[in-house]
Amino acid sequence: MQADRYYAKQKNIEPASIYNVVIDGGNTSEEEMMQKVGRGIILNSLWYIRPVDMKAGEWTGLTRDGVLYFEDGKVKKAVTNFRWNEILHDATKRILALGPAQQIEYMAQIPTVLIDDFNFVDVTTF
Length: 126
Fold this sequence. Notes:
Elements: H1 5-11, E1 21-22, H2 30-37, E2 39-53, E3 58-71, E4 74-78, E5 82-87, H3 88-93, E6 95-104, E7 108-115, E8 120-123
Parallel strand pairs: 1-7
Antiparallel strand pairs: 2-3, 3-4, 3-5, 5-8, 6-7
């Protein structure tokens, strides 16, 4: 179980952090994903990820490195960055498709993920 030092002290357990993420991929291409949903947002990167409610598994973060709007399988335009809040185990229940796994930096192996109804809460000023 992941627990920061504060929560671990309350529960009398050892603090633990997840240092890597490995998610097995699927075989759906990004083009197939865009056709499947008709219109949506492509996120290239999530960053500044912080816990909101550790017990509930709720996290927040920002998008970066390109956010693109698409319709009918074609990218239409770049859009501004977003702040998002998600209960991550709920988001995994809304996964519609997975692309092939990709090595991201040295600590993560993550596929392209198609998620229904990802929770964007605000736009950023950058």
